[in-house]
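User: Thanks for the earlier help. One more: glutathione transferase. Can you show the sequence and predicted structure together?

Assistant: Of course, both are below.
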Amino acid sequence: MSKSHQLELVSFKICPFVQRSIIALNQKGIDYTLTHINPQETPDWFKAISPLGKVPVLVVDGTPVFESAVILEYLDEVYPPALHPADPLEKARQRAWVEFCSELLGRQHRMLTAKDEAGFNEARESLQQGLQRLDTVLAEQAPYFAGEQFHLVDCVYAPLFMRLAMLKQSYALEIALSTRMQAWSDALLALDAVKTSVVEEFPMVFANFLKAQDGYILKR
């Protein structure tokens, strides 16, 4: 299909679900514009195109598409090369693990916003257990989820790993990764498509987000 569509991605700077969409756009080399809005002061035009009031929203020639998983599927159908595997069963399996990543991001968010030690530890342990479960389905061959080839499922885990790496480096928060999973994380975070998927000032944006939450993570 033609690549002549005009694409605008509407974003919050901190949102990992936006980031996964940007990674797919970058990896495929698709031209798009990026519009950041303030999550505390969403404009009326955004409310009109986002029924759930969430980002990302991809506006395609004036038509809004919302929900990051749907956006990823649209991009993969329209813009080559396909990042989903061709085999229907393997494609379905990877789609399922895309959904699992959304759950892990939720656990990570609960950990970052927990107000007390008990809530923090509960969310941290839940995240750790989820990562351990994920580890059991990774291909033996590195570096990516299914081996040597980068897939759409890899797009969705990169934001999770980026935040884990920042928490380890800047906040001394260690979430244990197996050798295989660490290799996967390192490979994803080394990709230009991932490096350029956040704003240059992302460490500051992330730090400001944590300060605004006033959670236990900053009081440890």
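User: Great, one quick takeaway?

Assistant: The mean pLDDT is 96.
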